[in-house]
Specification:
mainly beta, ribonucleoprotein, Ribosomal_zn-bd, about 50 residues, Rubrerythrin, domain 2, Ribosomal_bL33, Large ribosomal subunit protein bL33
């Protein structure tokens, strides 16, 4: 079952992206490089609770 998870910027800690992941196959937290509109740059975003 796929569930929605929020992504937070590691630089400014703003939660500005939402993605989906399969919790049965991916047990670890997702990390992606996304564009942060607050930092105005591509930064690492991590999954939040």
């Amino acid at each position: 079952m796929r569930e929605k998870v929020g992504l937070a910027c590691t630089t400014c800690l703003s939660r500005n992206h939402i993605t989906e992941k399969n919790k049965q196959t991916q047990t670890h937290r997702i990390e992606m490089k996304k564009f942060c509109k607050h930092c105005n740059a591509h930064t690492l975003h991590r999954e939040t609770k």
